[in-house]
Amino acid sequence: MYYRASLIFLFFFSFLTSFRAYAQDPNYVYHNCPNTTTYTRNSTYSTNLRTLLSSLSSNNSSYSTGFQTATSGQGTDSVTGLFLCRGDVSPEFCRSCVAFVVNDTSNRCPNEREVVLYYDECIVRYSNRNILSTLSTNGAVVMSNGQNITSNQQAQFRDLLLSTMNQAASEAADSPRKFDARKATWTAPQSLYGLVQCTPDLTRQDCLSCLQQGINQLPTDKIGGQFLVPSCSSRYELYPFYNESAITTPQPPVSAPPPPGKGGSSSLLVVAIVVPIIVVALLFIACYCFLAKRTKKTFGTASAFDGDDITTAESLQLDYRTIQTATNDFAESNKIGQGGFGEVYKVIIVP
């Protein structure tokens, strides 16, 4: 029991140690610093370079966005630089990666003016030329995993790889961070993982052009491959080499309404018919209520006025003989006009 607990403790301790080492030391991939242009240690360019690197690795740099540019000095001694962290790493790890690489420049490129250092998690680049917002595909590096895809699966794998990576390139070019990562099902339980990234200062077209160039040079018969140039990078593997939980999965598009002729027109017709029926019904009810109110007002409370006296219509009801006598048998001399219900006669009632 004690032996088993000791093994578990040792395993846990080794995991923490390796994790700590990973967190402190990013994975070196490649560096490119041609010695065509160099500087001396105590030169003005050297001073400007130290200022630039200090600015890139300062606490005020944009680690949350994963991208920062800087310029130091003027004229022929000016230096322009940038760092770019992989789109899935945290701001904290981005900061530690940049600090590590900045310190590593003096070891790998001690006196070159043109420098690019590639690490899995970040890159640092500087030059005596203006490198900002400018596409650069110089010094391309292509790497591959030594293991081949099975020969009878190579065509299928190539189609899946190119389709996945080209989709990622299109999404990356359209995004503000110029980054995209995604996976696709290969053979159960394996998935294909792909990642592409450009420096965010590139235009959409320059980013897409750079990524497409890299994708076309990836080894499609290997289980993993990588393409690196100063302005962009592309990589694929059959294992998750990036932090999947930090990648935002695109939401599926909202379903569009059915087009006319496939249920859409008939549905609209039914709605249109229902609406007129409701409108007609409401108009009918409104007219009925209005007429009912007018009728009640006219006949329910009608009054006859005789000077200052008010007599209700009910008390003015007379029989036919009384009316015949009062009008002198409907004599023409007592006729006073024509109404909506016929002739109107003057009635003389003798109390």
Automatic annotation (TrEMBL):
Signal sequence annotation: 1-23
A matching Pfam family: Stress-antifung
Parts forming coiled coils: none
Membrane-spanning intervals of the chain: 268-291
Lineage of source species: Eukaryota, Viridiplantae, Streptophyta, Embryophyta, Tracheophyta
Keyword Membrane: yes
UniProt KW keywords: Membrane, Repeat, Signal, Transmembrane, Transmembrane helix
Protein name: Gnk2-homologous domain-containing protein
CDD domains from the UniProt entry: Gnk2-like
Domain Gnk2-homologous: 27-131, 137-241
